[in-house]
């Protein structure tokens, strides 16, 4: 984890962003340890819990940082496996109750008994051995911790939309009063979110972290190139159009797909969650390969319908080719001066 390759990966724009960079995180912890508010400048943009945890880790167990990242990755894989187990069992029971209403010759679309044990393992392994998640771990980005927390709880501004499929999934297990269940779930999440931010206020002593975290994301203040879409558009954008397109892009990343997809997939909350998670990664301002690994790990849940996806090979080959060509085009653009931003942006598309 401390080799020269780790340092190389840690500096890659595909792996590290202004939100999850290990260098920024360490610098923020250093400022915090020396009595300086790391949110005063434009350096640190992660939440106070990660700041304090990292400060404590650097103080008490700096030699074991690599092991902590590995353990977080393994913990994320196990939690994804546990969540997949619950979902598959629920889906299997629902399928068993409705089997009489299914059309003939649909057996290949149904979950088999063997899938109850196999699919959760596939989900865990798909995350643990995904090259993107391995790069994320070796690069020691704080997305490792974010994915761990996302698998445990929703603690980011974009995954907040996932409370909708979560509430729908919980409501299915309480059929007596679904609206009360949905309201309780949303209220619990809102209370936890408010408590989480108030705890950040207690840690830091002021509310400056809100603008440095949520405000930084919503206003897209850093246009460093990454695998997302924001940086290219807002580099080319005229200043007097910036606010309009900023609102447009942020609505596109959060709410635009939420309502129509919820209306269409309200009976399939886990599929809704998978789609919203993928769309959030694609359209957020500062995505990284670790975010991609998170939603790719959920694809084995839909093994029964994967055979009906018409472009599996094309999509897989495209991701493979662009993952390889991305760093090459970056080198041609930044170091060799024989390409430009359009080449790299084309790879990220």
UniProtKB/TrEMBL annotation:
Keyword Glycoprotein carried by entry: no
Cellular compartments annotated: Endoplasmic reticulum membrane
TM spans (from-to): 61-88, 148-170, 182-204, 244-263, 275-301, 313-334
Pathway participation: Glycolipid biosynthesis; glycosylphosphatidylinositol-anchor biosynthesis
Keyword terms, alphabetized: Endoplasmic reticulum, GPI-anchor biosynthesis, Membrane, Transmembrane, Transmembrane helix
Membrane topology: Multi-pass membrane protein
Record flagged with keyword Membrane: yes
Chief site of localization: endoplasmic reticulum
Lineage: Eukaryota, Metazoa, Ecdysozoa, Arthropoda, Hexapoda
InterPro entries membership: PIG-U (IPR009600)
A Pfam family of this chain: PIG-U
GO terms, biological process: GPI anchor biosynthetic process
GO cellular component: endoplasmic reticulum membrane
Name by which UniProt lists this protein: Uncharacterized protein
Membership in a protein family: Belongs to the PIGU family.
């Amino acid at each position: 984890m401390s080799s020269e390759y780790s340092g190389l990966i840690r500096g890659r724009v595909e792996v590290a962003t202004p939100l999850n960079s290990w260098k920024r995180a360490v610098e923020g912890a250093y400022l915090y340890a020396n009595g300086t508010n790391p949110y005063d400048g434009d350096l640190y943009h992660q939440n106070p819990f990660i700041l304090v945890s990292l400060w404590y880790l650097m103080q008490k167990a700096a030699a074991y940082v690599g092991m902590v990242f590995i353990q977080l990755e393994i913990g994320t894989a196990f939690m994804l496996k546990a969540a997949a187990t619950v979902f598959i069992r629920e889906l299997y029971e629902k399928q068993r109750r409705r089997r009489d209403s299914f059309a003939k010759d649909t057996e290949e679309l149904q979950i088999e008994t063997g899938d109850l044990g196999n699919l959760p393992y596939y989900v865990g392994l798909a995350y643990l051995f995904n090259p993107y998640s391995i790069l994320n771990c070796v690069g020691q980005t704080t997305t490792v911790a974010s994915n761990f927390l996302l698998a445990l709880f929703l603690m980011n501004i974009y995954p907040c939309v996932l409370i909708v499929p979560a509430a729908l999934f919980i409501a299915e297990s309480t059929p007596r009063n679904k609206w009360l269940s949905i309201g309780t779930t949303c209220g619990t999440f809102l209370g936890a979110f408010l408590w989480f931010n108030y705890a950040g206020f207690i840690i830091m002593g002021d509310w400056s972290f809100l603008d440095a975290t949520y405000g930084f994301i919503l206003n897209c203040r850093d246009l460093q190139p990454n695998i997302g879409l924001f940086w290219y558009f807002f580099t080319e954008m005229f200043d007097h159009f910036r606010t309009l397109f900023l609102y447009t892009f942020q609505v596109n990343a959060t709410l635009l797909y939420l309502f129509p997809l919820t209306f269409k997939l309200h009976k399939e909350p886990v599929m809704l969650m998978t789609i919203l998670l993928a769309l959030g990664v694609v359209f957020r301002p500062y995505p990284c390969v670790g975010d991609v690994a998170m939603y790719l790990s959920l694809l084995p849940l839909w093994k029964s319908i994967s055979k009906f996806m018409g472009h599996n090979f094309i999509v897989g080959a495209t991701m493979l080719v662009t993952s390889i060509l991305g760093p090459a085009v970056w080198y041609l653009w930044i170091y060799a001066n024989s390409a430009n931003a359009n080449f790299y942006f084309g790879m990220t598309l």
